[in-house]
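Work package 3, deliverable 3.1, input record:
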Amino acid sequence: MTTTEETPIGYGRMHRKEDVRFLRGHGTYVDDVTLPGMLHGAVLRSPYAHAKIVSIDTSAAEAHPKVRAVITGETLAGLNLAWMPTLSNDVQAVLATDKVRFQGQEVAFVVAEDRYSARDALELIDVDYEALEPVVDARKALDPDAPVIRDDVEGRTDNHIFDWETGDKARTDEVFANAEVVTTQDMLYPRVHPAPLETCGSVADMDPITGKLTVWTTTQAPHAHRTLYALVAGLPEHKIRVISPDIGGGFGNKVGIYPGYVCSIVGSILTGKPVKWVEDRSENLMSTSFARDYHMHGEIASTKDGKILGIRVKVLADHGAFNGTAQPTKYPAGFFGVFTGSYDIEAAHAEVTGVYTNKAPGGVAYACSFRITEAVYLVERLVDVLAHELDMDPARLRMKNLLQPDQFPYQSKTGWEYDSGDYPRTLAKALDLVHYDDLRAEQAKRRESGSQELMGIGVAFFTEAVGAGPRNKMDILGLGMADGAELRIHPTGKAVLRLSCQTQGQGHETTFAQIVAEELGISPEDIDVVHGDTDQTPFGLGTYGSRSTPVSGAATAVVARKVRERAKIVASAMLEVGADDLEWEKGRWFVKGDPGAGKSIQDIAMAAHSSLELPEGIEGQLDATCVYNPPNLTYPFGAYVCVVDVDAGTGQVKVRDFVAVDDCGVRINPMIVEGQVHGGLADGLGMALMQVMAFDEDGNHLGGSFMDYLLPTSMECPSWRLDETVTPSPHHPIGAKGVGESATVGSPAAVVNAVVDALKPYGVRHADMPLTPAAVWCALRGKPFRTDLAIT
Amino acid sequence: MRITVTVDGTEYSDEVEPRTLLVHYLRETLGKVGTVIGCDTSNCGACTVHLNGHSVKSCSVLAVQADGCEITTIEGLARDGQLHPVQQAFHDNHALQCGYCTPGMIMQSIDLLADNPDPDEKAVREGLEGNLCRCTGYQNIVRAVRDAAHHMSPGAGPEAERVSEDVRAPSAIGGE
């Protein structure tokens, strides 16, 4: 691995503090939590995609000797909990009352003494369904005769959720009308699922004596969950404690509130005992937040010599039966508005229409940074399609159109202000590293030879937008997207940092300690990072959208600087000099011109807790708090190149090489950044080649287990080759940008571009993900098919 | 049904239902929650433990089938506070993130190294095909296994976790 210009802060490639427990099986995940008297819950799910519930008979289940409670929608309706609000101001059925709207939907909840008995009792519940015609194909959801899914809303006569647009339509139409070249491509970003290895679950413990509810739960946003439970259940917020313990991966799957969480809480309230609910894999895949499912019609306008002028897009977004998409309130299509990508264009416009279908809710998940996966895939495919039309090299076409370093901060045509970038340098680095010209020569030779092993080279250049966000623009259900941090230095100079973000493996316990270490000169080993417990941490919106480093990382640097300033006042009292006479070097304040006269942060911490007389207004002790309201997002970027070999006889794709050059500004811990990129590249490869949740015409979910929903193993993944450039974010306190989702955002287009490039001699210009052997084989024969439907 | 098993060096005797999966017996009866569950179709390998020295997916074994057997879980690897060389190599090479696949991945890696004390990259990837990871993209795991092999050889082969006293001494590579 080449790492030519890393400028990590402080302790750089420090090994992870959290490994100590995970390596020995001493992590504490939700299903590891056991409480005295704890009961187990299980969910009965709908076998139909769309059906009226005629009756539910729970008597046999209730008679099971180990069953303590059976909860139905009727039970919940009595508590006004049969429906719950979603993160998109829609409502979602907790347990179905009137009808079921997707296969796998929650219908009843059994609480029993052990998990086997709870599952047994599910079999004893008798539900009488009356099947209804389902809406499976999003493109038919708005047909006049389409069945109305959401007839729970009075007066609703169709499946339309929202229309949203961005950019200048008139100007864009004008650019397209006058352009020399206009190229169009339909593409589907199919429905996939984040599939964290640990599924969702919770242990709810309502203490009937104190009236305090404690919920251990798989949440990426514990504080937001607490507030929502308070608002929905009517419990006072100080009587709710949400604990997000170790989380076995999130990837956006664990942002929202699922019916199972609510049922475990209700189960605990009804039985007076703690109730655990942990879903199995098929439940996770069938009912929790899916990702993508964007049907995109893209157009790109250019001059004959390849100057890109404009992009115009229409999107049909399949949101499933309830609009549960997780994004800031004013952004119903997330940050899809960054679809102009990394290019300097004259005009752009996009329209997005959201529709209901008989599928599980979700949409924003799986490292998408609020729909940027879709935006980047669209623009990077369009640029390749344009290159195909112009018969230009796709890397050269990109180089010609990339934003230049002196254009930053850059105001995009859809209203985003990119903070910093040096795109040409990063692309050049990736092309050098992969030996791009040699590869093209090899490809030409291969094509000439008529070999049945086709070779493809795919390039993608992406700009991300992460770190939501400025609270005057971005909120989730009214909660502004600022994040808190609290730092307390103990008398002996050790520290505790309390954060509102919630790691799910990204290494916050290490990297946030490194930020404090850099600012204060305290060893990271001496800094405990506390997160996930709403009773112990400041309010904030949690970890997703690669927002931890941009928001909480900034809060951490700021709070450490506040402590440093407090320490300066204490040091001046200790040294009996004016504070203005002091100078900081890492770990100590000393007298200007007299470096020997100084006090370490540890000495200062003890003095701050001692009987030392402090200036008026200084309270003693050494701590600070901060709420960081980011002025802007951060815009990391990257250049990816994928090389594939495709067997023309079988359609099998083999990724031969993958080069990823990422620029996330200042790298706190390069080792951890590289791990993030490795994981995201595997995600992207999986999406491009393997993963899809397809449906048949009856709305049966065909990707409901790991037998059908294929994740890449060690065999499919190549040895990733990484490099980096460093273009700091000017507005971030330590110049760091988010990076966690970059690789997932950037890599699918690189893989698809590579496969389509391999098929170019066969006249193929596009084929939809996943490019399974069957999909490639059909594309080679001029018969590409829709990957989201089993029957087309 | 009463079963008697030795888990991480301690003998246990318990009444279990015949249908009880080994992974649930380990987690819920014995409290060995280091071994975790990631799927319901035997694909992910997060529940991998050693049964008489060989790796098995404990979600696909009944507890009654383990009667009379010796089981090692992730919790039984480190001895006297010192990590097994494979655990240490996972740490050194940043081969884990969320940590959820890690116990199974480490148990499978030890089994793999027992079969092949010095595997090349391809052999490691093949040997770990039954273990899914959602965080690492596998690269650092592959590196860690090869790194561990170099620290364990020679003679760390068969039943690596049980001959640990012999292999551990020369392979101490800096503690945590």
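The longest strand of chain A covers residues 308-318.
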